[in-house]
Structures are given as structure tokens and as C-alpha cells.
Amino acid sequence: MQKNTTPCYYGEYLQLDKFLDAQKPVSGQYQDKEAHDEMLFIIVHQAYELWFKQILHELNWVLEAFNEPVLDTKKYGRIVQRLDRIIQIQKLLNQQIGILETMTPLDFLDFRDYLVPASGFQSIQFKEIEILLGLKMEYRINFDKKSFYNRLNDEDREHLMALEEKPGVFDQLEAWLERMPFLEKKNFSFVEAYQNAVEEMLSNDREIIDNIDCLSDKDREFQIKDLEKTRQQFDALFNKETFERLSAEGHFRMSQKSLLSAVFINLYRDEPAFQQPYQLIGKLVDIDEEFTQWRYRHTIMVHRMLGAKIGTGGSSGHDYLKQTTQNNRFFKDLFNMSTFLIPRSSLPKLPPHLEEAMGLKSE
């Protein structure tokens, strides 16, 4: 049944008169004929900004859902759905780099020098996405710390600085994990049971290393040292002082309790109560991975286009982008969590009252 009283016309609805008139190459202002590939350059970046707008639309909904004293479990499915939508958009953004790569370095040089000092530094929406996901100033690489706001006008700078003061997805995720009620339940302590299971697993691994006849003394020594490193990583998870020391050194960003909760969810992902939380955590890892791939592909493309030249915004170009790929990550702790997983066969059995609490009530 038609609900609108005024007919909706396709071009007017999409405002195509404005949209298709928004490509204004600058090269034609300085030379007889505008550079052919500048149109492609503009359209690809405009498309990026449109998709950034949609990503922000989804992220703001997710943040609003998390911004409650208790996360409504009925919203888990929609949170996962909206995070997955972001991931699909990111995949599309990664594919768009291939379109931009149809432009050769000489094609780019036809108009590049007319763009100074404009650069991706000035994409406010991309900076918003980074901040909302949790990449605040203190976690950025040194070049960003010095220049992140330098190339922006006062209004944009104030807007982003205010955004830094608000909790982002990382903060909300950490708070949500810290509220997870199953770590200590009646007479069951997950941390204690998990620590015992880890110790048994590591002891079995040491016994295997000691009893393999085909290992040379050098190989045996190497495997023992490697096992000891694994033991030290687990010890950091269980020892509060060690964990806080390593956090201060930048090895961890999440709190000890939130990381233990994330490990618990991953280990017992098959329990009905944890299936959607597990997907939620996995989608955030996927988002981080897609952004890392986008940064990497962007880095390779810039290297191909510019070689060792500096960027139009004054950065070191390829070298700068390479650093951001390696360091500007949102959820490193979730990526490293596989370090703390143990085989299903080694999982401590949950007590009946906890299995019931985490099960499907209809059964």
C-alpha cells in the first residue's frame, strides 16, 4: 500500500543533480586540458566518504546499544548484523583500491601537484571511525601524535578532540566484558579451574618434549625454551602484578578481567549464552583485520604511485603508511587471545548450575 502523498521521483530522491555535479577537477584551472584520471581519483574518494558515512551510522547505533548499564541481550543479534555490515563495506573499500590502481604513476603525476596540501589526513570521517573504534591519541604512532590535528580547521579539530573524550567501542567492549557474571559463580571459579587446566596442558607438553627420542639436544633445548615462553604468557594472564607491568609496557591494553572474560567466551563458545557474544567479539576482530588490510593495500598502492616521494600532506608517504599498518590497531588483545586458548579436550567441565544458567531455557 502506498503511504506517501507526494510521488517520489528517483533522481530527486537521490538528489542526483547535486551528487553528479560534485566532481570538480582542479587540473583544468592550471593547464589547457584537465588531467583525464583526476575524475577517477575524485569519484573513488567520494565513494570512500559515502561508505565512511554508512560505517559511522552503524557504529553510532552499536555505541548507543552498548551505552546502557546492562546490554540488552535482545540486541546481540542486531549488533552482530550491523558489525557484519561494516565488514562487508570494508571488503568493498578494499576492492576499490583495485579500481584506483588502474591509474598509472604518470597519470597521477598529471594532477598530483595541484592537490597540495590536501591529503587523507583531512578525512574527518575516517578519523571519526578510528576514534569511535578506540584508536585514541595516546595509542597512535609518534608522527600522528604530533600532526594528527595540525592540518585541520578549528571546527573539525574541536569536534574530534571532543570525540576523544567519549567512550568508544573499545571502552564499551571492555566494560561489557568486565560485567560478565560467569567468572565466579557459587562454588565455581573459572580462573582457578582454567589455571589448573593450563598447568596440566603445559606439564604434558614438557613430558612429550622430554620423551621424544628423535630430538637432538639442541632441538630439545629450543622447544623447552619455547614452552617456557608460553608458560610466561599464561602467568601474565593469571598474575595481577605481572599483567599490570606488561600493560604499562604496552603488551596489553584491555584489563585483566575483561581479557579473562573474552577467553572464557571463546573457550565455551558452544554454550547457548555465549554464541552471540562470541560472534560479536569475532566481528570486531574482522573489522580490525579489514582495516589493517586496507591500510596495507593503501601502503602498497602509494609506494607504487610515489616511490620514496613525500605525501601531499607532508608525511613520509609510503614509510608513514607502513607504520600505521603495523601499529594503528584497535583490538590487538583480541587478536592475541589465541595464545590463551586450550584444546576442547582440556576444558574444565562446568558445574550443572552454571550449564543450566548458560543453556537454552526452553530445553
TrEMBL record:
Keywords: Dioxygenase, Heme, Iron, Metal-binding, Oxidoreductase, Tryptophan catabolism
Details of cofactor binding: Binds 1 heme group per subunit.
Gene3D superfamilies according to UniProt: 1.10.287.3810, 1.20.58.480
Molecular-function annotations in GO: heme binding; L-tryptophan 2,3-dioxygenase activity; metal ion binding
Entry cofactors: heme
Binding positions for substrate per the UniProt entry: F41, I42, I43, V44, H45, R112, T312
Residues reported in the UniProt entry to bind heme: H298
A single GO BP: L-tryptophan catabolic process to acetyl-CoA
Listed EC numbers: 1.13.11.11
Top-rank EC class of the record's enzyme: oxidoreductase
Catalytic activity, as annotated: L-tryptophan + O2 = N-formyl-L-kynurenine
Pathway: Amino-acid degradation; L-tryptophan degradation via kynurenine pathway; L-kynurenine from L-tryptophan: step 1/2
Pfam families reported in the protein's UniProt record: Trp_dioxygenase (PF03301)
UniProt function note: Heme-dependent dioxygenase that catalyzes the oxidative cleavage of the L-tryptophan (L-Trp) pyrrole ring and converts L-tryptophan to N-formyl-L-kynurenine. Catalyzes the oxidative cleavage of the indole moiety.
Record's subunit section: Homotetramer.
Family recorded in the similarity comment: Belongs to the tryptophan 2,3-dioxygenase family.
Protein name (Swiss-Prot/TrEMBL): Tryptophan 2,3-dioxygenase
Organism taxonomic ancestry: Bacteria, Pseudomonadati, Pseudomonadota, Gammaproteobacteria, Oceanospirillales
Gene: kynA
